[in-house]
Design goal:
The complex is a heterodimer. By secondary structure, chain A is mainly alpha-helical. Chain A has 29 helices and four strands. In chain A, a hairpin with a 2-residue loop joins strand 3 (about 225-230) and strand 4. The longest helix of chain A has about 50 residues, at about 580-625. Chain B is an all-alpha fold. Chain B has helices spanning about 5-25, 25-50, 55-90. Chain B is elongated, with a radius of gyration of 17 Å. The chains are: A mainly alpha, B mainly alpha. At the A-B interface, helix 28 and helix 29 of A face helix 1 of B.
Chain lengths: ~650, ~100
Amino acid sequence: MADSIFTHSYLLLFLPLVSFVFIGLWMARKYPKMSGEVATLMAALNTIYSIGLATAYYRQVLSHPDLFPNRTLLCFDLAWLNFSPNLTANLGIYLDPISVMMVVVITIISLMVNIYSIGYMKDDPAFGRFFALLALFTFSMLGLVVSSNILQMFVFWELVGVSSYSLIGFWYQKPSAVAASKKAFIVTRFADAFFLIGILTVSFQAQSFDFQILNLPKTIALLNHTILLGGMQVNLLTVATLLIFAGGWGKSAMFPLHIWLPDAMEGPTPVSSIIHSATMVVAGVFLTARMFPLFSEAASTMALIQFIGAFTAIFAAIIAITQRDIKRILAFSTLSQLGYMLFSLGVAKIAMAGDSAPNLNSLGYSAAMYHVFTHAFFKCMLFLGAGSLIHAVHSNDLMAMGGLKKMMPKTYWSILAACLAIAGIFPFSGFWSKDAILLAALQSGHYVTFSVGLVTGGLTAFYMFRFFFLAFHGKARSKQHDVHEDPWMTFPIVVLTIPTLGAGLLEHFFTKEVIASSLSYAEHFAHPAWLPIVASLVGFSGIGLAWTFYGHGNTEKAEEWRKRFEPVYLLIQNKFYIDEIYLFITHKIIFQGIGTPVKWVDRNIVDGVMNLCGTALHLGSKAVRLAQNGQLQLYLGVTVIGLTALLFLGR
Amino acid sequence: MTLSHFIVLSLMLCAIGVHGVLTRRNLIGILLSVEVILNGANLNFAAFAHFRASDPTAGAIFPIFVMAVSACEMAVALAIIISMYRRKRRLDVYRLEELNG
C-alpha cells in the first residue's frame, strides 16, 4: 500500500494538471458555474493524496534511518533531456523532509483557497477561468517543490511565473491589473535570467542537474576555486551561488526587487492569499533551502542572504505601518516575514559529512522551514479574512472599515488568532517559529541580525493590530449595512485557525526531522530562558502601542503624531520612493538616455543601409524589365543571333 | 549527288525556316516555319548518316525520333494556340504581349 503510493506519486502533479486542462479547455465555457466545485473536488483529492503521501513517507523513510540515511526518496524518475551521455536531465519526484512539508502545505492551502473562491468569485464572469488558472498555479508550485533536478525546477519555476502573471492580471480589463502582472513577471523574469546562468555554471562544473549530486561535497570542491571575472579574482562557488540565489531574490521579492509584490495585490484576493502563503514568494526560500549544503559553503553568499533578509524584514515592516490599503499591509507583512525566513537561513550552517565545524548551527535552517510552515497558514487566513472585509465594505481602504466586529464575528475571532500568531504571542504558531528564528540568530552570534529580528517583531505586532483595531473596532465608517459572512468564505477562514493555533506543537518534530544530520546543536547551545520572554514583551508592547493609538477604532491620536513627523511619514508611506527611483532609471536613463539614440541609429543607419540595398535591386530590376516586351519574335531573333554568335565564338 | 548538295539544301531549308519564324505575324505560320527548320536538321542527319556513317541505320533513326518528338510538341503548341485563339479571336504575335515584364 505504502509502496504504491510512492509509485503513483505523479498523481500529485497529475490531479491539478487534469483540473486545469479539463476546466480550462472545456468546462469554463460549457458549465462555468460547476467549475468551482470540480476544482475544489480535485484539490480535495490532491490534499488527501498528499497527506497519505506524507504519512507513508513518515512511516517508510523517516522511521527507518538505517534504510534511508539521507531521508530522501526518489520515487519517480524518467530520463527527459539527453544532452550528452553523461549529462541527462530527468523528470523526477524527489521527496525529502522539506518537499513533503511543502506538498502538504500547498495542497491544504490550495484547497482552502478553492473553497473560499467559490464564494468570493461567485459573481465574476470569468468564474471558470479563475479555477483553471488556480489549478495551473498549484500544479506549477507542486512541481517546483518535488523537482529532483534543478532544470526541472527551473521549468516549474517559470510556470509559477506564468501562472502568477495570468492570475495577477486576472481582471485584465483594469489597466492597473495589467501593469501589475507585467511588473511581477518582468521583475521576477529579470532575476530568473541570473538564475539560469547560475544553473548552467553549476551544472557545467558538476556535470549533473540532480540536487543530490549538486549538494555533494565533491561538487563544492569542484566549484570552490578562484576564477578571473571581469578583471577581478572571484570565487566560482560564491558567484554560482549568488547567481542561483538571484532567482530566489526575485521570486521572494527581497529588497530591492520587492517592488512587484505590493502591486500584485491587483489580482483577486484568493490569488494574493495563495501567492503569499504557500506558493510563489516562498519559492525563493525553498530554493535556498534546497541548495543549502552548496550555499552554506559560500560564506559571502550566506552573509548576503542574511543581510538582505534582515534588511527586508525591517524595511517592509516600517512601510507596512503607514499603509492604508489592507492588502498592501499584508503584502509588506509577507515581505517582512520572508525576510525572517531568509536571514534565518543565512545564519544557519550545516556540517558536511566528516566535517565538524565549531559554529555548527542547523537550527536556522529548520527554524526557517518551520516558519514557512506556520506562516503559510496564518498568512493565508489573513488574506482570506481581508478578502472577506473587502467583500463586505467594497473597499480596500482601512479608513472605510471599522466596527465590523459585530457584523462578522467568525472572521473577527479567526483574524484575531492570526494577528496574535504573526505578532508572536504565546501559544500561537508564530510564537514558536519566530522564537526559533531569533534563537538561531542569537546562537550563531549575529547579534545585529538578532536585534533587527526582535525590533521587526515589535513592528509586526504594531502594524497587524493597527489593521485589526481599525478594521474591527470603533464605529463603522462604511455606509454598507448589509454586511454578512458568506459560508463558502467563512469556512476556510475558520478551518485555518486550527493550524494557526496548533502548529506550535510541531516545533519539536520540525527541529528533529527537517534537518537530515547534526542534531548536536542542542548540546552546544542552551536555549536562553529570557529569549521567549523578551520576544513576547516586544510583541505585547507593539500591541499595546497599537491599542493606545487605534484601540477605540479612531485615528485622532495617530493623526497628531503623523502631523508631527509629516516628511518622514510621507517618505515611508510612499515606500521610500523606490518605485519612483526605478521609473527614473528605466524611463529617464535607459529609455531616453540610451534607448532614444540607439533607436535613431537603428531607424536611420541600420535600416537605411538595408533600404538602400533594396532600392538598388528595385531599380536594377526595373531596367531589366524594359527588355521584356512580350514580343515573341524579338525573343526568337535574339535567340538566333545569340546562337550564331556562340557558334562563331566557339571556333 | 554528293553530301555538299544535301548540306546546301538543308541550310536553305533552315534559313527559310528562321526567316519565317522571325517575320511571320501569324502564330500558325511561325509553327510551320519551326517545322521547316526541324526538317532541315533532319535532312542533315540523314545525309551525314548516308554518306559518312559506317552503320547508316543509326543516323536514320535520329530523324524519326525528331519527327516523333516534334509531332508531340506540335500537338501541345496547337492546343495552346487554339485556346489562345478562343480567348483573343486573333493570332497576331505583335498583339500577344501579355508575357512582358
